[in-house]
Amino acid sequence: MSMMNHIHPDARLGQNVRVGQFTCIYDNVEIGDNVEIGNNVTIFPGARIGSGVKIFPGAVIAGIPQDLKFRGEETFAYIGDGTTIRECATVNRGTASRGYTRVGDNCLIMAYTHVAHDCVLGNKVIISNAAQLAGEVIVDDGAVIGGGSLIHQFCHLGKNIMLQGGALVNKDIPPFVKAAREPISYVGLNTVGMHRHGFSPEKIQIITDVYRILYLSDLNVTNAVKRIREEIPQSVTRDEILDFVENSQRGIIRSAF
Predict the structure, then answer these.
(1) What is the reported pTM?
(2) What are the residue numbers of the active site?
């Protein structure tokens, strides 16, 4: 550790933590083992950083929320094991709404990305350069968000989606799909992503059948869900999609076709 750092004596650092020059680590911070922290990084109170994390120069972790309702309450920003946070990315801590912001394990948060207060990211999420997530966004496991995308607060992005770069997202995006165009729309299934994650042909077929009815049948969402329940046998995969659709608070994206 360089003498040009400021590391608060009450910060708890694990074994084999490497800290670059001009980095500030405040009190009420916990950092796991084998973490690499670059130059000019700021880690504010409330950060909880797992093991094997890499944080590149200029990143800011656990900054106070950009939310006028915040009153200084103790909240947290969790960074999961094996996650990489690239240059100048920011992850704010939570508010009283949820109490924390969470980035899961083995995520890649690229340069200039912003993850706002009370967001929850699953595992193996990839957020490309300069994407901006507003408060209380949920991103499920394996989602890929294209560079420069803007995600409206309270949106829910489903598991294993692929979102085009520069997207403006103000609706929920169901799992396993590709989303693109303006306004943001369903443009097909993320078959490449599903194959990469080892989905069986049977699972991919169920997903294909569900979305054929949901997006290509000219039915509204309510009637499409009813037909899916009638025509497609019950399975974990079918019900995962239907649960997402029926619990959507902002409404799901519609089809581009």
Answers:
(1) 0.96
(2) 117-118, 135
